[in-house]
Structure formats: C-alpha cells, structure tokens
Amino acid sequence: MRTAVVVGNPKPASRTLAAATTAARLLSGSPDREPDLVLDVVALGPGLLGWGDAGVQRAVADVASADLLVVASPTFKATYTGLLKLFLDQFAGGEGMRGVVAVPLMLGAGPAHALAPELLLKPVLAELGAACPAPGLYLLDRQVEAGGGATPALAAYAQRWGPVLRATAAAGHETRTAR
After folding, report:
1. Sign of torsion over alpha carbons 60, 28, 127, 19
2. Which of 26, 31, 52, 117 has the fewest CB atoms lying closer than 10 Å?
3. 179 residues of the chain, pLDDT tens digit each
4. Contact between 83 and 14 (Cβ < 8 Å)
5. Distance between first and last Cα of the chain
6. How far apart are CA 85 and CA 102, in angstroms?
C-alpha cells in the first residue's frame, strides 16, 4: 500500500506536517515506516499560481497514485489554507483522486473548529474523486509536538479507523491495478 501526506501549511516543517506524517504511519498499520510521499506544499512555491508547472504536475501525479492519503492543514480563517486550495485546484474534478482513500486532518488552537475537517475539507476531497470512509480528524495544535509523535486522540483515531481505511485502500489499489 502506497501512503502519502499532503500538508498545506505556509510554514515549512510545521506541527501540521509532523501530525500528518504520524497519522499516515499509524493509519497504514506500519508505525515504524515513513510514508512513501510527504509533500509540504509550500515547497512547490510560485508554480502553484498557474497551470502547467512541471514540478506541480509531478506532485499531483504522485499524490494521485497513492492508495492512502492524509491531507492536512492548520485551521486558518475557520477553514483550510489558501495554499492547500491552490494545490487541490490542480486536480481534475471528479477524477483527479479517483481510487485514493483520503483522510482530512486539521489542526487548530481550540475546539470551536472541530468540525472543519468534516464539513470543509472532506467535501473537496470527495469532489476530486477520493473516497473518505472515515470522519475527518481535528487535533488541537498544542497537543502536537513539532517532532511528531502520536497524541492520544491520534492513536485512538488510528486504532478505530485504521483497519477500515487500509481495507478500503487495498480494494481501491486492486481496482486501479486491474484497469
């Protein structure tokens, strides 16, 4: 199973990146194995502002080939960042993430935006063709260490939803390879 992480935090090497990478490891069922792809979207730079940038196109293709994808953002103005939106806009609607099992993950300062991953990020991923069989995950940023590590909430989420996500991703992988 090919796992990937996409993080739309304007700050490189953020706590959002650490949480998303930890989530991907735990959800994949191989907590000691790093994800196959970790994309800190800020590294794509100005190529995100137009269409046809070769680096952005490669990143889109790499993400679209994932079986299990964690898409993460800090909560910014009550939703996900514009940086993440710029990247997601590069995918073809309805088809760009077909066969990918995606997990929306957001970090925030307080519980007021706890439904943001479910209500704001998950519908965008579904519109791009991703399957999102588990609820979105919201973590308080003060619970996430910059170096990573599983928070109790993240560990509980992985224990509850990891088997569902792995089974769905495996089925999607078989479907994609059969084409």
Report:
1. negative
2. 52
3. 999 999 999 999 999 999 999 999 999 999 999 999 999 999 999 999 988 999 999 999 999 999 999 999 999 888 999 999 999 999 998 899 999 999 999 999 999 999 999 999 999 999 999 999 999 999 998 888 656 667 888 999 999 999 999 999 998 766 665 55
4. no
5. 17
6. 15
The amino acid at residue 149 is G
What is the rounded distance in angstroms from the CA atom of residue 77 to the CA atom of residue 60? 25
Give the predicted TM-score (pTM) of the model.
0.94
Element (H, E) at 16: helix 15-28
CATH code assigned at 61: 3.40.50.360
Tell me how many domains the chain contains: 1
CA-based nearest residue to 134, from 99, 108, 169, 172: 169
User: What is the span of the domain harbouring residue 170?
Assistant: 3-178
